[in-house]
Design goal:
Distance between the termini: 39 Å
Number of domains: 2
CATH class of the largest domain: Alpha Beta
Helix content: 25-40%
CATH architecture of the largest domain: 3-Layer(aba) Sandwich
Shape: globular
Strand order of the largest sheet: 7-6-8-9-10-13-14
Order of helices and strands: EHEHEHEEHEHEHEHEHEHHHEEEE
Number of strands: 14
CATH topology of the largest domain: Rossmann fold
Length: 389
């Protein structure tokens, strides 16, 4: 756990909670620590994303340091809570920059990450985001210092749309979180979706921390769609499914990967059975073939997370983003053989790495490197994720 003993620099940052994972330096160790800064949404509406991300970053740093660090350099990470707030995320980034980090990890949400981009670009420091929207890294010519771990929302929409077309569900209603994340999801069906034969018959915004969805769901039921697409995260994801069942809405309901967490299944209980959720392989690891290059890594990650961070279990795709972010950065450091900013950026831009979220094949034109094949459409059965048939 992130312990009190690891709170370095508290005087410099007032009451900000700071975490260092650098192990004690041995007498023969000459390499200086690689300092990493991170800000994620450990509280606020994005907490179901930020808490497992923070846990998993810490876990990855601990593992790497236990194995000897990166070419002898221990990793030292400072993790701040941006409270799911864009202004706080930017303020955290400014505080982290005072520590002269080699890279920045975060934030959890699209709006917090987008707010951080201009400062990271100005500082010319690699930033690895955990946000969904492709807008965080595109256009690459204007985002050359920005990378991200989650598969882009475009690929998530593509995976859902391919599945829905097979089922004949092209007349859809959309409930979307009323921010950049949700509006981007809506556009994939309302605008880009037209080219794939999709028609949005109703679109309803919902607040990230909404406690009721009756109005939105009543409108959707009246629109008589063939399916309902929900582009949000907890806690509103849970509010929507409960209202959906209470109103006996008969149409299939499909969630974006923002809801691909076992916490959602635990909170919703039987009400979520039958719902479809886009996910990475982490939620269906038991169904993977033994030859799948991710299977052993996923099993090891899941076991370690549950053991070390039971309070934030079960695992989710979001913890995987944090875990991959640290390991991708470590791999780039090995390839660059230096922490010098431009060389580290170049190494990230040409990196191939198989992680918890998929196989990343980054290029100068693609600062994410995942494809639609990293996403699976799941269906919840008896409180568990299964591959949708």
């Amino acid at each position: 756990m992130r312990s009190i003993l690891a709170r370095l620099g508290a005087l410099a940052l007032g009451l900000i909670f700071i975490v260092s994972a650098a192990p004690p330096r041995s007498a023969g160790a000459a390499a200086e620590p690689y300092v990493i800064g991170a800000t994620v949404s450990e509280s606020g509406p994005g907490s179901s994303l930020g808490r497992p991300e923070a846990d998993s970053m810490q876990m990855a740093v601990d593992e790497i340091n236990k194995a000897g660090g990166v070419q002898g350099h221990p990793l030292q990470i400072t993790i701040l809570d941006d409270e799911s707030n864009a202004t706080t995320a930017v303020n955290n980034l400014r505080k982290l920059m005072d520590q002269h980090p080699i890279a920045i990890l975060g934030s959890s949400l699209t709006q917090t990450s987008l707010a951080m981009v201009p400062l990271a670009m100005q500082a010319q420091i690699p930033m690895i985001s955990f946000a969904s929207s492709a807008e965080v890294i595109q256009p690459v010519t204007e985002r050359r210092w920005i990378f991200k771990m989650p598969i882009t929302d475009f690929h998530t929409a593509q995976a859902l749309q391919e599945y829905m077309k097979k089922k004949g569900w092209t007349k859809v209603a959309v409930i979307y979180r009323n921010d950049d994340y949700g509006k981007t999801g809506l556009s994939h069906f309302k605008d880009a979706g037209k080219n794939y034969g999709f028609e949005v018959v109703d679109a309803e915004p919902i607040a990230a921390n909404a406690s009721d969805a009756t109005t939105q769901l009543t409108h959707i039921k009246a629109a008589n769609p063939q399916a309902v697409v929900v582009w949000t995260t907890l806690p509103s994801a849970n509010v929507i499914i409960k209202g959906y069942r209470e109103l006996s809405i008969p149409y299939p309901i499909l969630y974006s990967d923002g809801s691909a967490t076992g916490v959602f299944l635990h909170q919703a209980g039987a009400t979520v059975n039958g719902a479809y959720i886009a996910s990475t392989k982490i939620n269906v690891v038991d169904t993977l073939a033994n030859k799948d290059p991710q299977k052993k890594l996923l099993q090891r990650y899941i076991a370690s997370f549950v053991q070390n961070y039971p309070k934030d279990a079960p695992v989710s795709i979001f913890g995987g983003f944090g875990y991959d972010g640290v390991y991708v950065l470590a791999e780039a450091l090995k390839n660059a053989k230096t922490s010098q900013a431009e060389k580290l950026r170049n190494a990230l831009e040409h990196l191939t790495y198989t992680g918890v979220s998929g196989t990343f094949s980054m290029t100068p034109a693609d600062h994410n490197g995942l494809s639609v094949f990293s996403t699976v459409v799941t269906q919840v059965e008896n409180g568990k994720f299964t591959i949708a048939k």
